[in-house]
Structure formats: C-alpha cells, structure tokens
Amino acid sequence: MVPERAAAPASGWCARDVPTVCAELGASVGGLSPEDAADRLARWGPNALPAPPPTPWWVVLARQFISPLIAILIVAGIVTSIQRHWVDAGAIFLVLALNAALGFWQERKAARDVRALQELATTSARVRRGGVVEVIPAEDVVPGDLVLVESGDRVPADARLVEVNALLADESLLTGESLAVLKGTAPVAADTAVADQTDMLFTGTLVSSGRGAGIVVATGARTQLGEISALVRRKPPRTPLQKLTHSLERRIGVVVLISVVFVFAAGLVSGYSVSDMFRVAVALAVAAIPESLPIIFTVAMSVGVSRMARRGAIVRTLPAVETLGSTTVIASDKTGTLTENRLTVERLWTMDGDIVPGEATDQLTMRLLRAGALTNEAGESARGDLAGDAVDVAMASVALTAGAVSAVERARPPEHHVPYEPARRYSLTVVREPDGARMQYVKGAPEVVGALCESLAVPGGTVPYDVELVMIENARLSRDGLRVIAVAERVLPPDAAVDAPPSGMTLLGLEGMDDPPRAGVADAVAECRSAGIAVKMITGDHPETAQAIARRLGIATDRPPVTGAEMAELDDRVLTARLEEAGVAARVAPGDKLRIVEVLQRGGETVAATGDGVNDAPALRAASVGVAMGRGGTDVARDAADLVLTDDDFTTIVEAVEQGRVTFGAIRKATFFLLSTALAAVFALSANVLIDQPLLFLPVQMIWINLVTTGIQDIALALEPGEGDELARPPRGRREGVLSRVLWARTAVTGVWMGLVVLAVFAWSLNTGADVDHARTLAMATFVLLNFYQVGNARAERTSLVRLSPLRNKALVVTAALAVGVMWAVTVWEPAAALLEVTPLSLLEWAGCAAVAASVLVLVEAEKFARWLLLRRRRLVDEMQD
Ligand code: ADP
Ligand code: MG
After folding, report:
1. I want to staple 388 with a disulfide (CB 3.0 to 4.6 A). Which of 79, 378, 476, 864 is the partner?
2. 370 & 453 share domain
3. pLDDT value at 540 more than 50
4. Do 190 and 286 fall within a single domain?
C-alpha cells in the first residue's frame, strides 16, 4: 500500500511520533523491501527537482547581436543600403546572419554539454532496503525509504529522523542560518518553522557531523527545497578570460572607429569621392572586426571541458579551465589522492612483541585486534565483503582473519558509539562482552589515544603508561610509511553512564597499516616539477608516515614536514617560508588547510587544493581551484569545489592542468591569427588610400575574404590539441593577457608584412598594365594564401611547424584547404565571379601568389629558429657555469 499523504508537502510530519510516521507511510525503521521501493518509484517518480526551464531560443539568438563590434557592422550595413550598394549590403547582412547562427548553435551546444556534465555529477544516497544498506542514486529514493546520513552527506530527501548520533545539520540553504542545528528524534509542535524542526532533515542541506537515520516523507518537487528551488538557482559567473576577451573586443572596437574616421578624412583630402570613401570605410570595418572572437571562446572552452571530462575531471565552474592552466602549486591530500586508500594492517605492536599479521598470535594481540574491530564502522556490503572507511575495513578484516572477533559479534549494535571524525581523531564504542563486562574501546591517532591512557597492557596485567616508549614505537612504525592507530580499552564501572567520556584507559597496542602510493603519481609529480608547479602533500597523518610516502613520490624535500602544532606557533610570514621549503604538512587539523591555502595565495601562488571531508569545504572555496573527490569524498566537499575527480587520482589533476594550458593556448592561437590578419587588411586598405591608388578591396570582397579565410579557420584553431610541450614550461604569468608580449610583437610584424605584400602585388599588377578587376583578384588570392600560411604560424606558437603533424588537427587541414579551394572556385565560376567582380587567374599567377605569400611563413619560422638558438645558447652558458 502506498499512502496518499506523501504527495503533500512535508508539513505536520515533525509533530508525529515515529510509529505514526511509519504507519502513515507504510514504512518501517527496518527499511522498505526492494519490490515496495520499485512500486513507489513508479508511483511517485524520481527524486529530482524539475530542471530549470532552458533559456528560450530567441533570447539566445538575440544575445548574439549584443556586442559593440556587431553594432558597428549593423551600422555599416545600413549605410551601405542607403547608398544602394545592394551586393555589399547583402553580404554584410549575410555575415551578420551567419555569425549569429554559428554563435546560436554553439551556445546551445555548450548548454547541452554542461547539462550532460551535471548529470555525471549526481549524488548518491544510502538507504536500508531488504535488510541491507545499499548505495543508490539519490534520484531513486522514495517516500518511506529509510535513509542513512553521516557527516559530509547532502541530505537526499526530506526525512523524519528516527535515530541520531550527535547529528548536526547545516541548513543555511533553506533557512539562511549558518550555524549548524543539533538534531534529535523527539516530535515538535506542528506549526514549528522549518528552521526549528529539529526532528526533520531537509533535501539539499548538509550534514556537518555525526550520524543519523530517517524515514523519507517527501521527494523531488514535493520537498521544502522543491518549493523554493527557483530561488536558489544561480547564474554562472563570467570567467576571467571571458572578461579579458570582452575588454579586448571593446578596445578593438575603438581602434576600428578611430582608424575608419582617420582614413575617411585622409581619403577625402587626397581627392576620393565621398561614396568611394564610404565603401573603403565599410570594407575597413568589416576587415577589422573580429566578430568570431566570442565563438572561438565558446568552442575552445567547451572542447576543453569535455576533454577534461573524458579524462575524469568534471569542471563545475568554467573559470577552473583557465585557472588550472596557470596553477603554480598543487596542495594535495595524501590519503586516497596520492595513495590508494586501500589499507592493509602490516604490523601489530603490543608489550608482548611486534608481529606481522598471520604469525602465531598471542593473547594480548588478540585483545588488540578485537577492540580495534569493535569500535569500528566498517559494515558488510550487499556482496558480503567489508565496506566503509579504509582504516575501519583494514582493522576489521585483520581481526576477522585472525579469529579475534566474529561477524555476528561485529553486527550486534553497540550500547554507545562516538563515530570517528577527522577533527577528533579517534572513535569510541561501548559494548557488552560475553563475560558481562561493559567495555569502552577507543581507537585513533596514538598521541590522542595516549593522552587518555593511564596504563599499558602487558601479558597478565598492566604497567603504568609510558609515553616515551609508545611514541618511540609509533615513530618506528611510521618511518616505514605505515599509518599507525592506537587501541585502548577500559572496563566501564557499573555506576558509570554509558556515554561517560574516555579516561584512565589501558593502551592495548598499535596497528600499523600500509597505504601504497597510486601508480603513476611519482611520474606526475616529476611532470609538475618540469612544468614549474610545486606539489605539497597535506595530511592528518603522522609526520614520519607522511614524509616516508612523500619520499617515495618525490615530493619530500630535505626539510622536515610542517606540523599542525608548529603552524599554531608560526606567524604567516614564517609559515610561508616553511611551506616553500617543505614538501609536506602533517598532523594538520582540517582547519589548517584553509590557512595553508590562504598563506600560499597571499604569497602570489595560484593554488589548486584537493579535499574530501566536510571540514575541507572552506579551503576548497578559498583555493584558486578547489578539487574534490568524486568517489571517496563527501557531497559537502564536491559542492564547494571547482573541479571533481571521478577517479580521485592525483595524476588526473596534472592532466587537467595540461588541458587547461592547451585550452588557453588554443584561444590565444586563434586570437593571434584573427588579429594579425585583421591588422594586415586594415593596414593594406588604409595605406592604399594614402598612396592614392584605385580602391584595393571592395566591401563585398573584404567580406568574402573574412568569411573564407578567418571565419572558418580560426574556429578550427580553437580545436588545437596543443604542442605537446605544455608541461615542459613554466606557468603563464599572472598579469599576462590573452596574448603574450612575443605574440603581440609577432601580430604587429606579420600583420604589417602581410599588408605590405598585398599592397605590393596590387601595385605591381596595376603598373604592369592589368585592369583593376584583375589586379584586385591577384591581391585577393595573395591575401587568402597569406592567411593559409599564417594559420600554420598560429598553430605552433613555440615549435617549428615542421615538427607538428598536420593530422593532429584535421578540422584545420580541411578548413585551410577549403579556404584556398573556394577562392579558386569563385574565380572560375561565372556567376560568383560577376558578383565579386573577380577574374580567372592563370596557373602561373596562382603559383606566383603562393610563392610571395610563403614569405610570411619563412619570416615566422626564422624568428622561431632564432629564438630556439638563443635559448640553446643560454642553456649552454648555464651549463658551463654549473
Ligand atoms: P588524511 O588527511 O591523510 O586523510 P586523516 O585526517 O584521515 O588523515 O587521519 C588523521 C589521523 O586520524 C590518522 O593518522 C589516524 O591516526 C587517525 N584516523 C584516521 N582514520 C581513523 C579511523 N577510521 N578511526 C580512528 N582513527 C583514525
Ligand atoms: Mg582521511
């Protein structure tokens, strides 16, 4: 039976006691059966908020016309129409239409891609069904389900709590209240405001600490969040690069207007007619305006985002793509990111000896193993193996294998349990042992557990606790890279409360577990070094453990790790210096990570920081790029991050950094191409007026060139896969704009050179007696071919073009060939030739144009070669000095 009530918004549930809630929902605290859950899912639909309505198509279309550059083109089109140059006017409006269509299509595609990515990032929920705890997509949660939450989870549905353990929820999303609320199970009055319904959990809010279980009372749009979901939607921010290109566009707009006015005046002074000068002005505006800049940006970004996704890095905020490219420090968690987080207990230390699991096990070691397996949250998964926190799984599995505890004993609910939280560094459990004693077991970081101990277990009794002895053994195990957990016990006195705080305990021993480094991480760290990126390991683990693993990965320096205790003493300046020298920060409290990130950033670094826990969220938000774990991490961390790793792997961050650099590089290659060819046209058209020749290019011809040369090839340039040396060079400077100084210089020199070549061909042809149409055709062909070579120059910013296989960017090969082919086609196809006022060219003339145009390739290749020689000489000198 599926009751109707669940359809109503979750009101009144807070006032009912648990049995009533269960009865009304046909649910039980033991969970639904899988069949019942399936029925309910069919009945109530998926637990998802309705997708926000997509931006209407006409808004997207209208947006394509909002740009100062497009405005100039529209004015040019209107002026041309008034002058009744119908072909020119038609061509201008055609360009506008094509441009808008392309931009429209691109933007819709980008929006689709983003939606697909969001689907990849859906969260999961833990529910009890058919008696076992299952992890299911949050979408499949139904009213009546028993959901389990723990610190770091995002609550998947509105639920009435039936069980809590120090449960704190951050409900700021719903209530605006940033202080976490302590939850309970006692009903509250029916008219209680959402913010004070302490026996309820609400969709989308975050569990800051503790554990809890609740019966789902509402899903999807029927939840509290569903009712206000329209209010919490946010607009994506503009990326820094987007701002850069926007300001670049504005500046280009101004330059275009000034030069148009100047050339117009100069032309009139030297005797051209007003109508001629209008045509020149329009041609100039068309030539100079890089109307495809925004499209290049969208294409490059969406290609970058999907390439990153393919490698396991999901971009949540667009700026991350380019910020990754300028990252100078990666501050990475150790456990799970640099290492596998697959722990196995390798050593067991007690006062009776130091053994390797599997060896004959003495009494004391059995007690150590048993205690470690009973204050332990590892559970049986549906498949029957152990699941949960890696430390818990390792300790439970070694105890089960040794026969120190049975699965049945482990499954029995404890009398009291304080879950492990990174900020506390221990877990505590009270269980009643078969002999009737109430045992309080604690496991955690040796310093923390040691502070609770008064005695040390020896065979047959105890001796007074010896801090030094235990710390020496701890350090000894840690130096082998083992993560060490101390285990202690005490018999709770009969009159003590079940939740009595731990004190006067007896240390049973230490368990040392190995966490192997992930494959490929050492290589990725080396790559970072050559890419000018420093890698810092951040961990809550013991300094010796961390340093041993850092050494294996090439992260360690000869300086000892910075520790959390040390950090508390240091001021920011000294800390910056320490962090610069040391590769590792160990035994840091969760809050320390935020300070590390902030201190590094204040020192001028661009920091990518990883995190997985609830307490990592502030650091992830503060970092230039916050990186969260898709598998091992919490929802809270993912929410705060810019990038989510689907494989939790450090090497993926490095690949994302490389792709970030490639994306930025592609945008800059396309921009270089666009600006240099525009400069060439502007230079040629203006100079031509000043030297008093017949008009160089007619507006329709200029538009044609823009379409077939820049228009299609620059978009293909945005697809460039990179030159392969992206990680062999230092990060881009923080103040650098879209183009570097070298590229600005190259833009100026090649732009002017190409303009001169076009002018020279035009003038030479006129002087040898060709008619104006023919001379113009020659100049046009030369310009199209110059652009063809210039695309090659643009592809390779640093390396010689001959070292870059053309097949790496097939779209570019096709469009470049198409540009020249289409130019040839219009010269021979009568109707087009008439419209564009061009004439056929002989094979010899084509060859001549191709030869002079090649000069721009030679020019840039020579420059690159000179630069390479210089670099090599500098390296030789450096080597000789060493
Ligand atoms: P990391 O930052 O490398 O993930 P943690 O903050 O998770 O390190 O762990 C810090 C310390 O807390 C560990 O060195 C260990 O002593 C202790 N610890 C970790 N996990 C558990 C656990 N499940 N139960 C008890 N203690 C733990
Ligand atoms: Mg951890």
Report:
1. 378
2. yes
3. yes
4. no
Does residue 483 have its Cβ closer than 6 Å to ligand 1?
Answer: yes
**Minimal-distance CA residue to ligand 1 atom 3:** 539
Answer whether residue 39 is part of any domain: yes
Indicate if 639 belongs to the active site.
no
**Cα 630 to Cα 608: distance, rounded to the nearest angstrom:** 16
Structurally, the chain folds into a number of domains equal to: 4
Residue 697 sits in the same domain as residue 833? yes
Task: Tell me the C-alpha distance between 436 and 439, whole Å.
Answer: 9
Angle between helix 650-690 and 240-269 (nearest 10): 10
Q: Report in angstroms the alpha-carbon separations of 333 from 581, 611, 745.
A: 18, 6, 42
Contact assessment for residue 278 and residue 699, using Cβ atoms and an 8 Å cutoff: no
Of all protein residues, the one whose alpha carbon is nearest to atom 13 of ligand 1 is 541
Residue 668 lies in a domain: yes
Determine the distance separating the centroid of ligand 1 and the alpha carbon of 587, expressed in angstroms.
Answer: 9
Name the residue with tokens 């808004």. Answer: 59
**Residue that terminates a domain, selected from 207, 232, 257:** 232
Residue 591 CB–ligand 1 contact under 6 Å: no
CATH number reported for the structural domain that contains residue 819 in this entry = 1.20.1110.10
Q: Which atom of ligand 1 is nearest to the CA of 422?
A: 6
Phi and psi for 357 in degrees, rounded to 5? -50, 140
Is residue 422 lining ligand 1, measured as CB closer than 6 Å? yes
Where in the sequence is the domain holding 37, given as residue range(s)?
4-52+122-232
| Domain co-membership, 45 together with 71 | no
Closest ligand 1 atom number to CA of residue 485 = 16
Of all protein residues, the one whose alpha carbon is nearest to atom 8 of ligand 1 is 540
pLDDT at 7: 44
Query: 276 and 375 share a domain?
Result: no
pLDDT: which is higher, 316 or 349: 349
Average per-residue pLDDT for the chain: 88
The single residue of 333, 635, 648, 649 carrying the catalytic annotation is 333
Residue 414 domain flag: yes
63 lines ligand 1 (CB under 6 A): no
Range with the largest mean pLDDT of 40-49, 138-147, 276-285, 722-731: 138-147
Cα of 200 from ligand 2 centre, angstroms = 29
The dihedrals phi and psi of 220, each to the nearest 5 degrees, come to 55, -135
CB contact at 8 A, 660 and 323: yes
Q: Are 828 and 866 part of one and the same domain?
A: yes
Closest by Cα among 489, 499, 596 to 540 = 596
Query: By alpha-carbon position, which residue is closest to atom 25 of ligand 1?
Result: 444
